[in-house]
């Protein structure tokens, strides 16, 4: 009996290619089961061959790996110019941060990654995790600004590259996410004023492109501030991004909240739980769990949206890559540069995606069976 | 213990409850029955304010229900409720389902709450299921957990809203047995159900509702053997006739 290929069952075993006999049987069943299937399989193999071979030739075989002056890349029939990355990777990753002090943003980026990893482990979901984050962020702040422990002071105008991207994304998500939960709850509130405020905010922000929000934050906002008061450009951009992300995330969270049956609210109320305890213990844990796929989708989109800060003159990863290409010896090697930037973005986004899948699986494993009779409704 | 006097409720233009008067004394067991749409579920849900009434008075354990949140919280602590669809919390284990409210509402220490919960799991005869999730239990077991969850709050009154209607026939008895035992221990109970055998066994009074009104209220043997109204006769013939 063939299973429906479009419905993935939880118990569907993946065919592992370790045993050649199994692999052969698998290939016969899935790739060569009929003349039509065989023809399609062969066609795809042929196309991959025609496309992949020239790419591998360009990217690996004929590639130029090392050429500080870039001349080797200009030679006729040379492949990818990875020498550009070798030469400019520090500028791409750290922007205009003082060259000798670039170990500081490097270390800061590592601390970010370490914080992500620790937060991903469920056994670490304890109150002390908040302290770890506070400590980590403080260390990142000290490293980036300096001015203490013999480190020279670096104003944040000079921050850039990957460290800036991680900074914008991390603070953006870390602040926007709790905010979005409050917004989603407010939008479902029974108190009209609170509900209208939330609806107004969400619809206003969602109706505007992020670029225009960033423009407003960087160009218009200073006009409204009283004389003598200035808010740092980076902070303004960060606030604009938080406000933007919160509106989108709020709608995702609201979707999750709407999927929780009314009986769950009633059972919590009947036990005497207050509104916040009911939300915190009963409703939100379930709502956020079913929202994991769209939440992570929004996180990933937001991570990449941080690259829009280039329009207000902040040097995030994509901007530094772009600027690298303006140097005369490297002009024209945009493909290589953007492949590099894509690879960096991909690593982070793919990690988020895989993690969300693993999290869904582990959260759902214990209680995958049965739906608690929730679908039966109230008589 | 519970007193409803001249309670009225409308859903829009629809008059769900019409001048409902009912008194339930301490330790009394009242079974509410009637055709679907007669307002019996709505009435029972008024008692712990899952629904609100528009006129009349509801007094539970000496506290009058009003818009004052304090009085609602106070009453909900004293009134346990069991739903037709169980409404266990699917993301928590059975033990967590049972101890959440005692810990966070009654402020019991965790250890004490767990011992307490284990005691009630034994009373509903599933002590071995404490670490499972609701989705891993049968419907009858889930409903017994729901009863234990309500009992863990040490309520003075238990409300049952068609507790066996969502169950497969072979599981109804195990839930009813638990309820009968509870009744024999002297719990004050208001139970919406069509289980007439249960009503005969434990009820002090049977209340028959139709179209938002209390049509008859009598001791079970009177109600079943000599119903006074035609509506009650019709209803009884329908549910006992086959």
Describe the structure.
The complex is a heterodimer of chains A (379) and B (242). With 379 residues, chain A is mainly α. Among the domains of chain A are: 56 residues; 199 residues, MetI-like (MetI-like fold, Orthogonal Bundle), CATH 1.10.3720. Chain A is built from 14 helices and one strand, in the order ααααααααααααβαα. Chain A is globular, with a radius of gyration of 26 Å. With 242 residues, chain B is an alpha/beta fold. Chain B is built from nine helices and ten strands. In chain B, the strands form two sheets. A six-stranded mixed sheet of chain B has the order 6-7-8-3-9-10, sandwiched between helices. In chain B, strands 2-1-4-5 form a four-stranded antiparallel sheet, covered by helices on one side. Chain B is globular. The model of chain B has no long low-confidence stretch (mean pLDDT 91). At the A-B interface, helix 10 and helix 11 of A face helix 2, strand 6, helix 3 and helix 5 of B.
Q: What is the mean predicted local confidence, pLDDT of chain A?
A: 82
Name given to the CATH architecture of the domain at 163-326 and 333-367 in chain A: Orthogonal Bundle
Oligomeric status: heterodimer
Rg of chain B is 18 Å
Helix content of chain A: 55-70%
Number of helices of chain B: 9
Instruction: Report the largest inter-chain contact.
Output: A-B, 31 and 38 residues
N-end to C-end Cα span of chain A = 41 Å
- pLDDT < 50 runs, ≥5 residues of chain B: none
Summed up:
Chain A is mostly helical and 379 residues long. Chain A is 65% helix and 1% strand.
For this entry, give a set of tags.
heterodimer; A: 379 residues; mainly alpha; MetI-like fold; 65% helix; globular; B: alpha/beta; 9 helices
